[in-house]
Every structure is written in structure tokens, then in C-alpha cells.
Amino acid sequence: MIREVLRMGDERLLRRASEVERFGTPELAALLQDMRDTMAQLNGAGLAAPQIGVGLRVVIFGVKANARYPDAEEVPDTVLINPQLQPLTQDLEEDWEGCLSVPGMRGWVPRWSRLRYAGWDDQGRRLERSVSGFHARVVQHECDHLDGILYPMRIRELSKFGFNDALFPDAQLPPEQ
Ligand code: NI
Fold it and tell me: Which conformational region is residue 104 in: left (phi greater than 0), alpha (psi within -120 to 50 degrees), or beta?
């Protein structure tokens, strides 16, 4: 079922989400189906459960090759629960980022360029990956949602935060997440 995505200003986006304690349940499956339906409807690159008002540490993300975004790297469709992130470098990389909870805007956001992430899938199977680039950026953005952090809070130069059509009159932008 497609759910409403909360927008910045809603205080539910600012809370720390709780750990999932039971895997493989019908409730978790239903949550993930709603998240997939909602993300697909909005052509998003990722979605965190708090964005649909569910305070659990569950994120999904994935980006397929898409003619609209020829520069976007592919990211495998992933369900990540109770995630842990560990930077593999202290190097920060800045790039444009958008969020389904801040629709129609982009900001220039610093993120670790390489990191290892670990967590569990919906059946409680362990997942561990080392990633870089756009994949690393998407994971950091989604996991920030679990700690009540929205990307505008990380922008260092607020002159690089604005509306898509004003910032990039002609460009095709990577998807929101
Ligand atoms: Ni977001």
C-alpha cells in the first residue's frame, strides 16, 4: 500500500527509531511492502521507515540503471535492518542530494566516501558490505533518517541548498531518497 511520506517539519522525522526485535513476521513483511510501494510510486532511491511514520530501524534502497539518470551508479535493491555503519576513511566527499521528505529541493552534502555497513535482512540474515561513491551516500542518507537527521542538517554551505528548478534549470537530477 502506498503510504504518505512525512515532510520536513514533522517531528516524527526527528526521533531516534527503535531496533527491530523480531524478524520474518507478517508485520515486518507488510511494512516492507508498503515501503517498496511508496518508494516505487515516487521513483525514489531509498526510503526509511520513519519517513512513513514507523519508528523502526528499517531502510530500503536501490537504484537501477536509468536513462533519465545516466550518471547515477547502480545500487542493488537492499533491505537493511538495525544497520551499523563504519567509515573506512575520514575523507568526506560532497555531492548533491535530495530527500523524499524535502521534495523538490537539493543540497550539497558531505558524506564519507567509503564505508562498511552491516545489518540484517527481513528474515534476520546477516548482511555486510564495503561500498563507496553513490552507494555509500545512499546508505548514509537512509541511516541518518533512523537517528532523526535530515540532510539539510548536514549542509555546510547553505548557499548550496535550493529548489531543483532554480538550481538546475536544465539538468536531470538523481532520485530523491
Ligand atoms: Ni531522505
Answer: left
Q: Distance from the CA of 152 to the center of ligand 1, in angstroms?
A: 10
Secondary structure of residue 174 in the 3-state scheme: coil
| 20-50 pLDDT, tens digit each | 999 999 999 999 999 999 999 999 999 999 9
Ligand 1 centroid to 39 CA: how many Å? Answer: 11
Would you identify the CATH topology of the domain 11-167? Peptide Deformylase (3.90.45)
User: Buried b vs exposed e over 125-164: b needs ≥16 C-beta within 10 Å?
Assistant: eeeeeebeebbbbbbbbbbbbbebbbbeebbeeeeebeeb
Any idea which residues carry the catalytic annotation? 142
* pLDDT tens digits for range 59-98: 999 998 776 666 778 999 999 999 999 999 999 999 999 9
Domain boundaries, the chain: 11-167
The dihedral over CA atoms of 136, 34, 41, 147, expressed in degrees to the nearest 10, equals: -40
